[in-house]
């Protein structure tokens, strides 16, 4: 699925866009499932907007923005269970992480047309810190994505900085790290952007008439242990490649 040159690019820059990981039928099935989850959530008591709060945007603008960010989508629809262990995904991860790869969690990030919220620049590390920093996000694009509808932007090489001090709800100082400081990563539906959880990334507001639907799955080496008991869920640790060298009894999240 990827060449040695692409593997080297990832290790040097902390991210890699892989084209055509999912075909059009697979993408359409995930779109239908995503929209159905939003619809079911809207009829439940668990619906919410996950728009990041903070001083990175004026308060009156922040109030108008919406982000649907439901976690563990593979608990909601089998289409995502198939996606997160797709042979093409496994082929890439086995080159970037190693022979043994497990799921940490999944989530959907949907920016509605014209009011989809921004993500200020940040590292994912503060949310679920691990000892060896093997954690990689796979951002699966369900729509064509560009700066107009809020595509992801990364700062290449920042995974080499190690963990950085964050402010507010785990984002970097927006005056020091504006979204404009990132390299845009436009992508087509079916493409997957892989990036290390130490790579600084973010995305701007969706100002277009198009949705920006992404499903993001975090993966790790099973021998890379968490340094804090945070972000634990009962299905964590599903093996995608290889085996888990650490044998233990798995029980419900606490």
From TrEMBL:
Q: Keywords in alphabetical order, please.
A: Dioxygenase, Oxidoreductase
Which Gene3D superfamilies does this entry report, sorted A to Z? q2cbj1_9rhob like domain
Name the InterPro entries on file. Answer: Phytyl_CoA_dOase-like
Q: Which GO terms describe its molecular function?
A: 2-oxoglutarate-dependent dioxygenase activity; iron ion binding
| Signal found in the keyword field | no
Cross-referenced Pfam families, in alphabetical order?
Answer: PhyH (PF05721)
Q: Which SUPFAM superfamilies match?
A: Clavaminate synthase-like
Q: Which PANTHER family match?
A: ECTOINE DIOXYGENASE, PHYTANOYL-COA DIOXYGENASE DOMAIN CONTAINING 1
Q: What is this protein called?
A: Phytanoyl-CoA dioxygenase
Which organism is this protein's natural source? Paenibacillus tyrfis
List the taxonomic lineage. Answer: Bacteria, Bacillati, Bacillota, Bacilli, Bacillales
């Amino acid at each position: 699925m990827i060449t040695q040159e692409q593997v080297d690019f990832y290790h040097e820059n902390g991210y890699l866009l892989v084209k055509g990981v999912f075909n059009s039928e697979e993408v359409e099935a995930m779109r239908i499932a995503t929209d159905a989850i939003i619809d079911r959530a809207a009829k439940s008591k668990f619906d919410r907007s996950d728009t990041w709060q903070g001083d990175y945007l004026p308060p009156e603008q922040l109030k108008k923005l919406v982000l649907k960010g439901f976690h563990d989508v593979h608990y909601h629809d089998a289409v995502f269970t198939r996606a997160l262990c797709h042979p093409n995904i496994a082929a890439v991860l086995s080159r970037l992480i190693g022979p043994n790869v497990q799921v940490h969690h999944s989530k959907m990030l949907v920016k509605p047309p014209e009011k989809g919220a921004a993500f200020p620049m940040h590292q994912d590390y503060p949310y679920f810190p691990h000892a060896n920093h093997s954690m990689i996000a796979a951002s699966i694009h369900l729509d064509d994505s560009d700066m107009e509808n809020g595509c992801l932007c990364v700062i290449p090489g920042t995974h080499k900085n190690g963990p950085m001090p964050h402010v507010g709800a785990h984002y970097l100082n927006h005056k020091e790290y504006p979204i404009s400081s990132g390299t845009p990563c436009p992508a087509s539906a079916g493409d997957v952007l892989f990036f290390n959880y130490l790579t600084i990334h973010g995305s701007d507001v969706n100002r277009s008439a198009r949705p920006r639907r992404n499903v993001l799955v975090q993966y790790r080496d099973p021998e890379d242990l968490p340094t804090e008991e945070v972000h634990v869920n009962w299905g964590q640790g599903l093996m995608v490649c290889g085996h888990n060298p650490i044998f233990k009894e798995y029980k419900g999240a606490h």
